[in-house]
Amino acid sequence: MKVGLIQTRTPATQAAALAHVLPLVREAAAQGARFIATPEGTNILQKDRETLLPRLTSLEDDVVVRGLRDAAKELGVWVLVGSALVKREDGKAANRSALISPDGAVTATYDKLHMFDVDLPTGETARESATYEPGSRAVTARAGDLKLGMTVCYDLRFPALYRALALAGAEVMTIPAAFTRPTGAAHWDVLMRARAIETGAFVLAPAQGGKHEDGRGTWGHSLAVAPWGEVIAALDHDEPGVLIAELDLPAAAKARAAIPNLVNARAFNEPAQLA
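RE: above sequence
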């Protein structure tokens, strides 16, 4: 199956974000992709909380999500909105991934579980928990022949989540991201390959890249990894663009048969605390 990964440099308003991402989605469809995934924060990137929050709407009312629903229906493709920053029903904010079917319907959503709260050596700080309410459930979904495990960015660092998704039947892990440049340079490729190898699953990682309007810098380098751990497609830059990959779907079952770690795992006693 041919898939398309969209690499963006999302602007700080939804209207500009739609104008930015929509031509890239159309380009991926024109190249034959039947499943197209966008990065984390596809609809808006604005790190100033006081500026961001008043601009957020519900997922149903978001301009970018509505535009991508129309595009999915027009093009006859599946679209994964890697994440949209939206207002929840209770008024709090969520970092929400949304799967759109070829008829334009939202068929599954997932709210990012793990919040990136960190002080980086570069002096950058991140406090996602100050803005977003974390999700509480892992989510699998079908997109045609694809059995998806839906995750977002920092979730990548929690392998237990991916094991649970694999045991629930997921064969393609989606990891849309807006990785920082220091952590991207150090960990992006190796962690993506590790999650693929551990779960015997494909990993699809569309990314934000470059210097954004709000001052942040993101790593880019979108990539697709096969279940045996080899990178099958990658961008070597942080510019907006389209990455096309061919997925040989039986490769997941083949990898899991060769290395049956999902079924060989055993329960164990927790280690005693060190004195």
